[in-house]
């Protein structure tokens, strides 16, 4: 039975009416520029066809990752080309030039010459006689008594070359493609390695060539990182960047075996140079960065080159069904969009915004401390004796490999609190490493094992935290600040890393001094890492359809400091 619902007048749908004046003032409409950008943003056809990961990307990444092996060899070879030699047993001072009225100190580094009517006069010994089978750099330049200083000074020039090469790579990548810069670094490093193996005769030449080799290593690493970050997307990109440092640990595991085959330091350089020819042979199969070509190249044939590259990758990945009918038109639209993109903001913009000052400061301090600790812990194994060099190098290599695996686990299993975990583990490992002062109370058979353990634990922590920080830079700042942030962070950290070689000289006071300093710096870096916060995805503006997906700043080499 119908109920009486009362009278209801006819109603009509309200017609659109203008907003009130107050609403217009407090909620301004989107600018015409924003509307135009929203409407004209093309689809990233490159990512649409290639996908996040595939066989083609795997082949390219494995080829590029191989460059980390010679990079690590040229960085750490000073430990085997200039090993410690022992006085009296392996070298003695040649004091014949001072006459019969002379005597030699116990460490064979000073000559005491007696003069009639005067006391003894002390002179530094400049010529030595050697009884060691391996002809090292210390013998080549007669620096038997200055071995620690020589190693620190030589390593300083290599680290300085890394600093200069990192800055030079940003300039070169404005005019040269990443694969061209990569090939330039490989070819130059081969030439420098052969020169160091056959032609070097002077100490100053050695330092100059070590600096140039550091420049070449930086060029190879920067260019390879750009290609890896451009052809891979999603979580696979993070995995590849985290594993980018794991090949360094593999190189450290192979270096003692290669050095054991050499009878002099020149052969060591020859053995670490010859594998570079493999990279030269694989250069035609090394992928190019497609978005770099679209963004920077002005040649008409570039579009055809990128098109052929994408089509070849689609064929290898079995994704030809993703190729649209208007493929070349969409590729041209993407090229126009990338070339019209605004340049990265200036360095001061890193410090603007809510929480930006703390985030930027903490990241800079943390990575600088990690760089110093990582390099220092590697060089400091020389302080534990030449007889234990191989075992210590293998332990450091395994520790770095475990650190990379730990970084993978924290990034995917503890992603919401990964910075707290990385910082906490660094603090814990640093505190354990500072216990090295208690080694004096251990029985003699356990002293070397204790040094090995107390240097391996901090290495695991610093390798993990450093890999996470370098692989997740895009999570710390908005996408438009990625290139500026990465350039500032790495350049600042490499500048501070120059001090790592000289901190190892403190072992002249006590073996535990440099180790405790590196562990203290690791603690400071861990504290700063705990303050890092992953920005929300919306704030980082990670959009697959803007032509600049997450991490696309890695192929934009223009930075304005």
UniProtKB/TrEMBL annotation:
The chain crosses the membrane at residues 60-80, 156-173, 180-201, 207-228, 240-262, 268-286, 361-381, 393-412, 419-440, 452-473, 512-534. The keyword Ligase does not apply. It is found in: Membrane. InterPro entries: MFS, MFS_trans_sf. The keyword Ribonucleoprotein does not apply. Keywords: Membrane, Transmembrane, Transmembrane helix. The gene is LOC115623800. One of its GO terms (cellular component) is membrane. It is a multi-pass membrane protein. This is Solute carrier family 22 member 3. It comes from the Eukaryota. One of its GO terms (molecular function) is transmembrane transporter activity. The lineage of its organism: Eukaryota, Metazoa, Ecdysozoa, Arthropoda, Hexapoda. Its main location: membrane.
């Amino acid at each position: 039975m119908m109920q009486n619902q009362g009278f209801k007048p006819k109603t009509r749908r309200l017609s659109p009416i203008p907003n009130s004046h107050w609403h217009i003032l407090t909620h301004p409409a989107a600018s015409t520029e924003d509307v135009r950008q929203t409407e004209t943003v093309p689809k990233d056809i490159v990512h649409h066809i290639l996908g996040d990961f595939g066989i083609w990307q795997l082949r390219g990444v494995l080829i590029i990752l191989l460059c980390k092996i010679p990079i690590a060899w040229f960085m750490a070879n000073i430990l085997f080309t200039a090993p410690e030699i022992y006085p009296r047993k392996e070298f003695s001072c040649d004091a014949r030039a001072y006459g019969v009225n002379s005597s030699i100190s116990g460490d064979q580094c000073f000559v005491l010459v007696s003069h009639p009517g005067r006391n003894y006069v002390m002179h530094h010994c400049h010529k030595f006689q050697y009884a060691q089978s391996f002809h090292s750099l210390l013998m080549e330049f007669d620096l038997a008594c200055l071995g620690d200083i020589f190693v620190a000074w030589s390593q300083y020039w290599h680290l300085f070359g890394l600093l200069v090469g990192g800055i030079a790579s940003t300039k070169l990548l404005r005019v040269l493609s990443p694969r061209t810069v990569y090939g330039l670094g490989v070819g130059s490093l081969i030439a420098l390695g052969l020169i160091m193996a056959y032609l070097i005769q002077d100490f100053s030449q050695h330092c100059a060539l070590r600096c140039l080799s550091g420049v070449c290593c930086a060029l190879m690493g920067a260019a390879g990182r750009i290609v890896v970050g451009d052809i891979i997307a999603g979580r696979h990109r993070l995995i590849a960047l985290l594993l980018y440092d794991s090949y360094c640990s593999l190189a450290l595991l192979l270096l003692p075996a290669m050095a054991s085959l050499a009878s002099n330091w020149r052969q060591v350089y020859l053995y670490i140079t010859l594998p570079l020819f493999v990279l030269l042979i694989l250069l035609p199969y090394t992928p190019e960065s497609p978005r770099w070509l679209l963004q920077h190249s002005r040649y008409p044939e570039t579009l055809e080159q990128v098109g052929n590259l994408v089509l070849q990758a689609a064929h290898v990945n079995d994704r030809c069904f993703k190729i649209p009918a208007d493929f070349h038109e969409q590729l041209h639209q993407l090229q126009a969009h990338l070339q019209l993109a605004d340049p990265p903001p200036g360095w001061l913009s890193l410090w603007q915004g809510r929480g930006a000052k703390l985030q930027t400061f903490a990241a800079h301090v943390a990575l600088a401390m990690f760089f110093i600790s990582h390099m220092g812990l590697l060089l400091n194994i020389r302080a534990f004796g030449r007889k234990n060099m191989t075992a210590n190098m293998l332990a450091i290599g395994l520790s770095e490999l475990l650190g990379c695996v730990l970084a993978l686990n924290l990034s995917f299993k503890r992603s919401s609190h990964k910075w707290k975990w990385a910082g906490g583990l660094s603090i814990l490992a640093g505190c354990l490493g500072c216990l090295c002062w208690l080694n004096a109370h251990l029985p003699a058979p356990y002293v070397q094992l204790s040094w090995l353990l107390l240097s391996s634990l901090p290495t695991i922590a610093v390798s993990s935290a450093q890999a996470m920080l370098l692989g997740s830079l895009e999570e710390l700042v908005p996408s438009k600040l990625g290139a500026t942030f990465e350039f500032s962070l790495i350049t600042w950290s490499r500048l501070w890393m120059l001090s790592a070689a000289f901190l190892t000289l403190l072992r002249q006071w006590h073996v535990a001094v440099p180790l405790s300093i590196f562990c203290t710096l690791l603690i400071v870096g861990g504290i700063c890492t705990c303050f890092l916060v992953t920005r929300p995805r919306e704030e980082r503006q990670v959009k697959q359809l803007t032509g600049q997906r997450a991490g696309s700043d890695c192929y934009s080499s223009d930075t304005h400091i």
